[in-house]
Amino acid sequence: MAGEPLKVLDALDVAKTQWYHFTAIVIAGMGFFTDAYDLFCVSLVTKLLGRIYYHKQGSDKPGELPGNVAAAVNGVAFCGTLSGQLFFGWLGDKMGRKRVYGMTLMLMVICSVASGLSFSSSPTSVVATLCFFRFWLGFGIGGDYPLSATIMSEYANKRTRGAFIAAVFAMQGFGILAGGVVAIIVSAAFDAKYPAPSYQENPNASTIPQADYVWRIIVIFGAFPALLTYYWRMKMPETARYTALVAKNAKQAAADMSKVLQVELESEQDKIEEGKSKNEFGLFSKSFLRRHGLHLLGTTSTWFLLDIAFYSQNLFQKDIFTAIGWLPPAKTMNAIEEVFKIARAQTLIALCSTVPGYWFTVALIDVMGRFAIQLMGFFFMTVFMFALAIPYNHWTLPDHRIGFVVMYSLTFFFANFGPNATTFVVPAEIFPARLRSTCHGISAASGKAGAIIGAFGFQAVEKAFGVKKTLIILGVVNALGALFTLLVPESKGKSLEEMSGEAGEEVERETEARAESRRTMPV
């Protein structure tokens, strides 16, 4: 197989965009829709949980989750996601992408429903049960990262592969948007049905008993999109690259892709047998370190740095809106009204910046390339973060608050038309097939480690240094992301085998031999 690629892989690389490409985008993308919905919807209801379960009689302000509880509710799913990315990434290379894909989806569905059914007699037990199920929800979500990216990359043609993988990830934007829309609809319906006074008018009556249903409905809704895609995920054939290059079954790979592409393909099992002993280095080998060590450092470090900034902004944007006066003081609203206004603000940000940013990446990633988009995104995130932070007092004045929101939205736009999309795309393209899911899982887990720092550390940093200095710190983090982007290779227009080194092994060895002979020739 060393001299030329298998015809089944070549057929996938040069295939025209067909219906099965869009089917794969929707099937994999709905998983990311659910992922984003589940991970972000909890940020909409944390204030409501505080009012319901941590109300103090006689207090002049509504109940709030204690700092450690708020950090746990926001961050525990990320801990599960990190674990799931590592475990399912490794399992996807061992058992196959398709076999593991169904496991992650059912785990997401079951734990979404269970999170919303976290009933108990005491607030501590409710929150503990919610955190338990959100950890396992995150574990399932974590598996979706390496598997969805790997499946889409291995199905796509090389001309539009970046756009297809980015389109899967772009469904995250719709998931965030849906989280806001569902919260708006549910809270508006309950507020209309059960009107209540503001907290300052009547503290006890401001949180109606039915408010306990509001957060549960919002959380449980995340199960339905995942459930709808389960049947179609199970119908997808295993990717040809896994079947041929990892399972070493060229006949099955050709048969599966003949159905998908609707063309006759030769099995070429003899090429598989010839290539069995070649290019079989492992993750912890010197060969991997030499060929892909810097690549893995680049994908892990950039995703880590991005997610510190991205998730800090996303999870706590309601606090920033309150600080600049975009949300009224909590005591001037009832519990359901507060959910509505937080959801409305988050939905506006998603609609104006988050969603468009994702789709700009989809449109331009195979034109500009991954490297250029990622570097540009980090650069502008740094610029806008410093532009918000340095004259921060200026932005808090009533006349300038809209300008603050516009600048804040632009940081989201360039995160999504930038590294938030490309850090997901690149690890699915540059590593060998037998390590692709594992390396993507490691890269994604590094990102979630950054998200955990954002989720658990942001509140402590903000309390210690204030919003202004915190924004400066996030600006420095983005600048470091731009620096580490220099380690990430460009994969635009190249086949997966070209990027990973699985094609042209003999050519590479001959080149190395010629270079060695030149070094040893007498002068």
UniProtKB/TrEMBL annotation:
This protein's record includes keyword Transmembrane helix: yes
Biased composition (Acidic residues): 499-509
Classification via InterPro entries: MFS_dom (IPR020846), MFS_sugar_transport-like (IPR005828), MFS_trans_sf (IPR036259), Phos_permease (IPR004738)
GO MF, any single term: phosphate transmembrane transporter activity
GO cellular component, one term: membrane
GO biological process per UniProt: arbuscular mycorrhizal association; cellular response to nutrient levels; phosphate ion transport
Keyword Transmembrane helix listed: yes
Keywords on record: Membrane, Phosphate transport, Symport, Transmembrane, Transmembrane helix, Transport
Domain Major facilitator superfamily (MFS) profile: 24-493
Chief place of localization: membrane
The family this protein is said to belong to: Belongs to the major facilitator superfamily. Phosphate:H(+) symporter (TC 2.A.1.9) family.
Protein name in UniProt: Probable inorganic phosphate transporter 1-7
Species this chain originates from: Cucurbita moschata (Winter crookneck squash)
Upper lineage: Eukaryota, Viridiplantae, Streptophyta, Embryophyta, Tracheophyta
